[in-house]
Amino acid sequence: MPFQIPENLHPDCGPVAWMLGTWQGNGRGDYPTIEPFQYGQELVFQQDGRPFLHYFSRSWIIDEEGQTVRQAAQETGFLRCRPEGQVELVLTHNTGFVEIWYGAAENGKLELTTDAVARTESAKEVTAGHRLYGNVEGDLLYAYDMAAVGQPLQPHLWARLQRA
Q1: For residue 74, is it within any domain?
Q2: What domain count does the chain have?
């Protein structure tokens, strides 16, 4: 299905318009404090004509055959689009932490870095992150680097998702 830019898209959202819709696929994760894993994921980016995209992600751990083992992370937030491709992301996680990110979008790429992280008393310590999203051959590829639980910023998640 070809992607069509909505008529009511706010001009500031132009650099991230390619992300609109629902994306599904699989990824891999790794970190020094956990065993490597595979996961399935669904991302949804929606807009209503104002200068932001609503974002929702849900994921589940899968085995080598692609069967669901258990539910995993969920996150939701708003990708706030600013003039000239500048973006802000306000993100909340089901695991008890919230983040503010800043970055830029251009030429089918979105790159973000954390500015602030806050957490609940029971959440794990996450201190920083870096996200890179790209439109590669019509798919959404991303990588997420994380600094958490005393570890420095390093690769944590990466995936390739297709438009549903």
Answers
A1: yes
A2: 1
Cα torsion 136, 114, 100, 16 to 10°: value is -20
68-101 per-position pLDDT tens digit: 999 999 999 999 999 999 999 999 999 999 999 9
Would you list which residues are annotated within the binding site? Answer: 33, 124, 156
Helix (H, G, I), strand (E, B) or coil at 146: strand
Binding annotation for heme b: 33, 124, 156
- Please tell me whether residue 87 adopts helix, strand or coil conformation: strand
Contacts (Cβ under 8 Å, ≥6 apart) of 65: none
The residues, ordered by sequence, that sit 6+ positions from 55 with a Cβ below 8 Å of its Cβ are 43, 44, 45, 75, 76, 77, 78, 79, 89, 91
In a domain, 43, yes or no: yes
CATH number at residue 113: 2.40.128.20
